[in-house]
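Quick log. Single chain, no ligands specified.
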Amino acid sequence: MAIERVTVSLPAELRQAAQELAKGQGVPFSTLVSSALERHLRGLLLDRWLQDYQDELGAFTEEELRAAAERMGLPYTPEPVGPLATAGDPSPRDDLSPRDDLSPRDERAAS
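-> predicted structure:
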């Protein structure tokens, strides 16, 4: 992968915290920023895939969400409500369509 040098503006506190984290992990600041951006973009892709999946097959039930969290060893937190519920929601990403062969719940839809 080609590396390009870019300039970005960050809040001073965020830059400082990120630089301290990078130093603590023994990695360059740019590596930490690149990794965080990659995780964010993958998260957006997963969010879109899950939304498309639920649009087609129906929303996940609370039981399914709790079971998934338990299997992953994560605490279950219900969907947020109120003004913060949509804060940070990405804009539509038509170019991030899910692959048709990634539908593990096809059996449920057929029944």
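Residues 90-111 have pLDDT under 50 and may be disordered.
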